[in-house]
Amino acid sequence: MFNDIGALELVTIVVLAILIFGPDKLPKVIQDVTGVIRKIRAFSDSAKQDIRSELGPEFKDFEFEDLNPKTFLRKQLGENEDLKEIRSTFDLRKELNDVTDAVNSRGADAAPAASGGSAAPAATGPDPLKKPAAPAADQRTPYDADAT
């Protein structure tokens, strides 16, 4: 829960607690807060047990953490044999290396042309840096006030 709190933040919280509650009341406040946290955890555990007992024996292994979409997907993708087979046939790193090699070889072919060589430009399509021309009036869709 508090994995991203650094040392500076922790020191700041302690200093603020001492300034707000004072050194004489701070131990009592800490005891009260830890007691509330214990009661909340006990209530949560009790509610989980009640839900498990109401769901029946087929849900005895049910974990509430599985309701998190990331955890659910990770668990389902890890257990599915068909997906393991597909994953083993598809090597993403190999595909990325092939694409990288293709891009680097295209970049190497274009380098002589940029340095004053006589090679023709590789791209024959529209220039992506230029603004596209406005469509003709007959190509535009008519304005529909009901659709807006």
Automatic annotation (TrEMBL):
It comes from the Bacteria. Gene3D superfamilies: 1.20.5.3310. Its main location: membrane. This is Sec-independent protein translocase protein TatB. NCBIfam families: PRK01371.1-1, PRK01371.1-4. The chain crosses the membrane at residues 6-22. The keyword Disulfide bond does not apply. It is found in: Cell membrane; Membrane. The lineage of its organism: Bacteria, Bacillati, Actinomycetota, Actinomycetes, Kitasatosporales. The Tat system comprises two distinct complexes: a TatABC complex, containing multiple copies of TatA, TatB and TatC subunits, and a separate TatA complex, containing only TatA subunits. Substrates initially bind to the TatABC complex, which probably triggers association of the separate TatA complex to form the active translocon. The keyword Protein transport applies. Residues 103-148 are annotated as: Disordered. It is a single-pass membrane protein. Keywords: Cell membrane, Membrane, Protein transport, Translocation, Transmembrane, Transmembrane helix, Transport. Belongs to the TatB family. Residues 107-138 have a biased composition (Low complexity). It comes from Streptomyces flavotricini.
